[in-house]
Structures are given as C-alpha cells and as structure tokens.
Design a protein that fits this description.
By secondary structure, this protein is α/β, with parallel strands linked by helices. The protein folds into four domains: about 80 residues, 2-Layer Sandwich (Signal recognition particle alu RNA binding heterodimer, srp9/1), CATH 3.30.720; about 180 residues, P-loop containing nucleotide triphosphate hydrolases (Rossmann fold); about 70 residues, Orthogonal Bundle (Helicase, Ruva Protein, domain 3); about 190 residues, Peptidase M41 (Methane Monooxygenase Hydroxylase, Chain G, domain 1). It has 24 helices and 14 strands. Strands 6-8-9-10-7-11 form a six-stranded mixed β-sheet, sandwiched between helices. Strand 2 and strand 3 form a beta hairpin. Helix 14 crosses helix 15 and helix 18 crosses helix 23. The two termini are about 25 Å apart. Bound molecules: adenosine-5'-diphosphate and zinc ion (ZN). The site of zinc ion has 7 residues, from strand 1 and helix 18.
Length: about 650
C-alpha cells in the first residue's frame, strides 16, 4: 500500500480551517431519533384525573411538616401542585393537590417549601389561547402605531423638507468611551498586532503626518460571526480613547430610495464633528455588494448608499482622524470600488481561535466569574475546537447560569461539561423509561464507545449517555481530543480509518443484537460523517491509489463565498465512479471491522449496555475500567 500523504494543513489558513472542521465534526457522535413523545411531556400528565392519587392541601402541609415530601411541582396555570412523597416508587404517578385561588395560601406554601429544603419547581407553561389573544392585540396595536407614524412622517416632511428624513431616524450608535481594551480581546494576536499602529495614529497623528506617512482610512476585518471583529474595533477606540460610531450595513438598506444615503451622510457628519474617532460598519456586504450584480438585479437604494459611502470616504483626508473599520464574512462579494487604495485597502483576517487563542479567550471571560479551583481552562480549550470567541463567552455564561440554578457558589467542571453538551448537542430531556427503544439506543451508543476504546488511533472516550436531548438526539458518545495535537489538524490515515470504524460501531451493534431488520435510521448522521471523511480522504488528501493530487477544494470554506459556489468538480465521470467505488470499499472494510470487534466481545457489550441502561451516563474512566476487566486496552501510540 502506498504511504498516504497527510494533508499539509499547517500551510494555509484554508486547509487548516477544513481540518479543524473535520476534527470538530468528529468530536461527538450523536444519534438522531424522532423526538419521543414521552420525553417531551411533563411528568404531571400521568397524574391527571386519577382520584386515588389526590391529596388535600391540608394533608400536603402536614406531610411537609413531617418531612415526608420529596419533590413538589407547582403548576400555576392549572392551579395544582404535583407532589412526590418519600418512598414512592419512581414510576408511580405524582399526587395531585388542588391549590387555592387565593394567592396568600400559595405564597405560604412557597415559603414553607423554601424553608423546608424540599426540592420544588414552578412549572412555566404558556396557555395557547391567551397567547393568541395577546398576539392579535399586539398586531392591532402595531397597525395603529404604524399608521400614526406614517401620518407624522408626512407632516414632518412637508414642514422641514425631505432632507432631514434620514437624520430624524438616524440609527447609528455612538459610544464616547467603549471601555474595551486590547486586554479584553484574546486569541487573535495577528489582527491585534496589525491594528496597533491605528491606535498609535489616533493618539498622535503628528508622528505620522510629519514624515508624510499615509494612514489607511479604511480597514476591512474579515471573519466568521463571533470571532470578535466588533470587539476588536471597540478595543481600538478604547485604547486610543476616541469615540466609537457604529452602524450595521443591513440598517442602511431601507425601503425608500435615498434614506440609506442620507444616513451615511449623517453618520460621517457626526464623525467629523467628533474626530478623531472610529466608524464601525458591521455587515458591510449588505450595502457593499457588487453593483448591478446578483439576484434581483440592481438595487437603486443600495447603489446610492454605496456611492454615498465611497464619496464620504474619498471626501476626508487621510489625516482627518476618522478611521472606518468594516466587518464582513463575505469579502468576495464586495464591490471592487470599496477595496481600492484610499478606501478599504487594508484587509485583516480574523480567524476562529486555535487552542491557545481559546485558552486566552476563556481566561478573559473567566476573570469576572467565580470559578472553582478544580476547573482547568486548559482542558476546556482542548475540548472546544471550532468554537468562536462568542461561543466560548457564551459557554462560560451558560455554566455560570447553571451554577446559580444549582445554588453553588462557584462554577465547577460539572457545570462546564453540561454547558458544553448543551451548546453542542442540545438541552437534556427526561430519560426514557426502560423499553426496547432505550436498549436499542444504548446498544448503538455503546457500540460507538466500545469500538473506539478498542481502536489504537481513536480519541479517548469522554462519556457515553442515553439521556435524550432536544433536536431529536437519543444519546451520544463524546471524546476528548488527544493532548498533543489539538489544533494542528494533522490527522493520519490510520486515525481517519479508526474514526470511520467507530462511527459505524453504532449501526454494527444494532445489527448484531437486533438483526438487520431492526436497524434504525438513528445511524443516518453517522453514515453521513463516514461518507464525508472517506470522500475527503480520496478527493482532497490523496489517500488512495487514485493518486496524491487534490481533486476538490475544501467545501468547508463556503463562507468565503462566491468562488466556492461556482466550484466545479475537477474530474471526469469515470473518476467520479471510481471515487464512489473507493468510498464504498473504505466504509465496508471499516464496518466489517467494527462488527467483528463487537461480535468477539459480545458479553462485554451486553454488560456495558446493562450498566448504561441503569445509570444513563457512563464516563470515560468507568467505561475503560469495565472494558479492561475483559480485554487489554490498546496502548495509544503517541
Ligand atoms: P463579531 O463582531 O466578529 O461577530 P463580536 O465582537 O460581536 O463578534 O463578539 C461577540 C462577543 O464574543 C464579544 O462581545 C466577546 O464577549 C466575545 N468574544 C468574541 N471574540 C472574542 C475574543 N477574541 N476575545 C474575547 N472575547 C471575544
Ligand atoms: Zn451513532
């Protein structure tokens, strides 16, 4: 077999991004199932109308005093409380208590609950009919307000002329002090470096003008949403101590011709009055698309707005102290005129953060939170490849919310773990009752986990769970990327093959245990991933006897836009057939391997499934512990 060439991902940003996507996509194997009804219905549905389970308000108070109550759900809408008494069977229906309409009694009950340490929950459920009524009312109110506005606007126009139209509704924001410093921006060091001189210029323009240096008027920040472009622009203003004007490109685009242009005029008028300053235009692609091109043909309004923007930028001298920073993730669709010298002639790419960057960003956002000593930011950074700065900030925030809800004083690793799962997979739902379906999901997930544990080149299992999650996820197995190569994106042939094999472990387990008639669509996601990887191995990484040349450019770069949308496959139909054939071979070989691993370890598989059905979640350590009672774990070759 010819030695496969690993993708030289460290060479270009594009392939690095592609490899990272690959790594991220693989971080978790989840099973999609149709969201089960039982999982979404509140537990109290069982209790409804069952006379035997009813108790009175008085009895409830008595039981509370005696400390016999385990849990209470207060349902304000129905005016009932659902109560679980200590010692009740877990599956037994809850006891229903009719509450008094009088709020005083309810407050008293709440107080009692608070003081008695009983677990309680107030169910917030919306009444549909009330909602519809509300919506109708809101709509009516909106119509009236809109009509009033139109009348007002007309009279204002006739009074003061149409020229003030845009100004009266100016939508740009101005912050005299952003309060953001470079220290608050982490993980995008190159971009920061390049923008240092802008800060110096804003602080002492004389330094530059004295020697005749030309300072860029416009800087274009290019990158995906959430990578910190706005934050960076604010930090420049903050460091230089100048005001920050911002507007979003989409706000320029209005129904009425001329409004956008007059907003641009207003914005720059204000900016000139306050120079030196930063003008930040978010989503500039909304106005800055190529003129006269694109779907829907030319858009007069947008063209006028764009022309006005160009005029304004040409109008002020390079040393007038206004620096326009624009952000986009589609630089390729921008009108060439915007990118000419003297306009946005400087482009800075703001990439998704790498491992170090993520660590830095986590550091920044952990500053203002109470974090327990056991929390290792390093481990979080390792587990979150592909996260943007905004997602990392959100992660810590979610964890903090969970901490408050659990009434703890500091965020621990448990909350962080839960927040990661929540953001990457979905909200947890009520576990399924023991059923064939539950066992099938358990076999599927243990199939993934066991196959991966028995393979040499796979990432270590973090956990396997069958607690369902929103979005129709029945369960999942997640993995920790290996320490030594979190972000370098160099993934070997053997590792890719092992990934394919473990992805097929779920389906293989279903088939072995339940027979080929009973396999489910739960593996659809897995199979999609297998096909993706196998195809990329052949067409991009040159990992097959079809040759070591790239036949496709990375499709994960779609956000860069047009050039990729027009991408043609660069091979013949004959080659396409060969590629398909090779993909099938890779997948088949891997499937057979997964099946044989599971078949030879059938009793281990059953034991793990029993444990998982009982516990619902098994962490990686316990899992490996059980496996090692049966077989020797492979030593990963570092
Ligand atoms: P963009 O403008 O690129 O869409 P933002 O600047 O609006 O992204 O980022 C949203 C939020 O995410 C920021 O306010 C900040 O809290 C967080 N964030 C994003 N990137 C970073 C970063 N590099 N360092 C620190 N925080 C970041
Ligand atoms: Zn699966």
């Amino acid at each position: 077999m010819n030695k496969p060439t690993p993708p030289s991902s460290h060479k270009s940003a594009l392939s690095r991004r592609a490899a990272r996507t690959l790594a991220t996509g693989w971080f978790v194997l989840q099973t999609l199932i149709a969201a089960p009804m039982v999982a979404t219905q509140p537990v109290l549905a069982q209790a409804e109308g069952d006379e035997e389970t009813k108790i009175t308000y008085g009895q409830l108070l008595e039981k509370l005093d005696q400390g016999d109550v385990q849990r209470v759900e207060l349902d304000n809408l129905r005016g009932v409380a659902n109560v679980r008494i200590k010692g009740d069977d877990d599956n037994a229906p809850l006891h229903q208590v009719t509450l008094f309409a009088n709020d005083v009694y309810n407050q008293r009950l709440l107080q009692k609950l608070r003081s008695s340490d009983v677990e309680y929950e107030v169910l917030e459920r919306s009444d549909n009919s009330a909602l519809t009524g509300l919506a109708v009312n809101a709509l009516l109110a909106l119509i009236v307000v809109f009509a009033l506005l139109m009348i007002l606007r007309r009279s204002a126009n006739s009074a003061s002329g149409a020229m003030n139209f845009g100004r009266s509704r100016a939508r740009f924001q101005m912050e005299a002090k952003t309060g953001v410093m470079f220290d608050d921006v982490a993980g995008i060091e190159e971009a920061k470096e390049e923008l240092q001189e802008v800060v110096i210029f804003l602080k002492n323009p004389e330094k530059f003008t004295a020697i005749g240096a030309r300072i860029p008027k416009g800087v274009l920040l290019v990158g995906q949403p959430g990578t910190g472009k706005t934050l960076l622009a604010k930090a420049i203003a903050g460091e230089a101590g100048v005001p920050f004007f911002s507007i979003s490109g989409s706000e320029f685009v209005e129904m009425f011709v001329g409004v956008g242009a007059s907003r641009v005029r207003d914005l720059f008028k204000k900016a000139k009055e306050n120079s030196p300053c930063i003008v930040f235009i978010d989503e500039i692609d909304a106005v800055g698309r190529q003129r006269g091109a694109g779907i829907g043909g030319g858009n007069d309004e947008r063209e006028q707005t764009l022309n006005q923007l160009l005029t304004e930028m040409d109008g002020f001298e390079g040393n007038s102290g206004i620096i326009v920073i624009a952000a986009t993730n589609r630089p390729d669709v921008l009108d060439a005129a915007l990118l000419r010298p003297g306009r946005f002639d400087r482009q800075i790419t703001v990439d998704l953060p790498g491992y170090k960057g993520r660590l830095g960003i986590l550091d920044v956002h952990a500053r203002d939170k109470k974090i327990a000593d056991d929390v290792n930011l390093d481990a979080i950074a390792r587990r979150t490849p592909g996260f943007s700065g905004a997602q990392l900030a959100n992660l810590l925030n979610e964890a903090a919310i969970l901490t408050a809800r659990r009434r703890k004083d500091a965020v621990t690793m448990a909350e962080i773990d839960d927040a990661i799962d929540r953001l990457t997979i979905g909200l947890t739902l009520t576990p399924l009752l023991d059923s064939k379906k539950k066992r099938l999901i358990a076999y599927h997930e243990v199939g993934h986990a066991l196959v991966s544990t028995m393979l040499k080149h796979s990432d270590p299992l973090a956990k396997v769970t069958i607690i369902p999650r929103s979005g129709g996820v029945g369960g999942f197995a997640s993995y920790l990327p290996k320490e030594d190569r979190v972000d370098d994106g160099l993934i070997s042939y053997a590792e890719l093959i092992d990934r394919i094999t473990m992805a097929l472990g779920g389906r293989a387990a279903e088939e072995i245990v339940f027979g080929s008639d009973e396999v489910t669509q739960g593996a659809a996601n897995d199979i999609q991933q297998v096909t993706n990887i196998a195809r990329q191995m052949i067409t991009r990484f040159g990992m097959s006897e079809l040759g070591s040349f790239a036949m496709e450019s990375p499709s994960s770069a779609v956000f860069l836009g047009r050039s990729d949308l027009m991408q043609r496959s660069e091979y013949s139909e004959e080659m396409a057939a060969k590629i398909d054939q090779r993909v099938r071979e890779i997948a088949m070989t891997a499937y057979i391997k997964a099946r044989s691993i599971l078949k030879t370890n059938r009793s281990l598989l059953d034991r793990l499934v029993d444990r998982l059905v009982e516990k619902e979640t098994i962490d990686g350590e316990e899992f490996r512990g059980i496996v090692s009672e049966y077989v020797d774990l492979p030593t990963p070759n570092q």
